[in-house]
Amino acid sequence: MHPNDMLRTVSRTFALSIERLPASLREVVTTAYLLFRVSDCLEDNESLPAGNKARLLRMWARVLEDYMPVSSLTTEIVGLDHNDPEVYVAQHADELLLELRRFPQPVQEIITTHVNETSLGMARWQEKGPEVNNEEEMDDYMHQVAGRVGYLLTDIFAWYFPSIMERKEKLLPLSRHFGLALQTVNIMRGLRKDYERGWVYVPRSFYEPLGLTRDSLLAADNTVQILRMIDRLADKAESHLQYGLDYIRNIPSWLHGIRLACMWPLLFAVRTIAVSRNNINVVLSEAKITRQDITRIVRDTTLFGWSNSWLTGYYNRMRTVRTA
User: Is 116 found in the same domain as 170?
Assistant: First the structure.
């Protein structure tokens, strides 16, 4: 399967964004994203024994450093269900590494460095265990799995475009917050699924003051407290998204493809937050934006997203529950 096809199977949303990038970036970012998904598979796959995950993540890091052959990893995961798109990607890591070797050496180093670091960060969290005590720990976890992605993309954008290189020092810290924002939304959306597999990424400091415990976190008779916890997560996500908005506003308007590729996940996240507030379906079933929302956001930003003043106003409209 071609990397572009792999991309569409593991994430239609990010495929939409990556395919809107300038042609010079598409293959690079596609390969980088899929290499990150190898790490995600090793961290998240429910078929892998918990004690094995950190070991496999560290093995993957050594593969990326050229200390081990990729077959060492793929042989270990050959028995996983290849019908899972993320597993399929991980089982074909050798093909992704061949794609990686096609890029300029500095770009290869950018990608391998960041995927290596996120893999080691994930391994550390697997060893730490399935509970987050406070917001500082939550931010550390989210940085490993998402903040580093922001660094990676900024480094790649800067290597290919001098106008971004000139702003890189300002963009890097904003990109970390952007990643934290998207991951906070992922945590909010995945509350039930994560809880059922034994993980709680919501800090104890968020839910214990509400009278909730780990055991009662999603209990049906705690609806009021759960909604307050969701609002706390939504507030946190929005505080990080403001930096994401600033990140996009610092990308030159003539790089419209890069701006759009960043705008869409930002605005999808803003809409997700809006429909999640005061919505118990976040933990009962699912709270997600509509296909109409996605179509509208893609259309409107494609037409007007070059303008920072328009983008700021549109972002604020997307924060309301009523569709703009």
Answer: no
Q: How far is CA 180 from CA 221, 282, 289, 301, 306, in A?
A: 30, 19, 20, 23, 24
Q: What is the mean pLDDT of residues 126-141?
A: 93
Angstrom distances, CA of residue 148 to CA of 92, 114, 145, 172: 23, 6, 7, 10
Neighbour count for residue 290 (Cβ, 10 Å): 11
Considering the entire predicted model, what is its pTM? 0.94
Q: What is the pLDDT of residues 234-272, one digit of tens each?
A: 999 999 999 999 999 999 999 999 999 999 999 999 999
Instruction: Work out the angle between the directed axes of helices 23-44 and 148-160 (0-180°, nearest 10).
Output: 160
Query: Which of 129, 162, 190 is the C-terminal boundary of a domain?
Result: 129
Among the three residues 106, 129, 152, which one is the final residue of a domain in this structure? Answer: 129
Same domain? 121 vs 221 = no
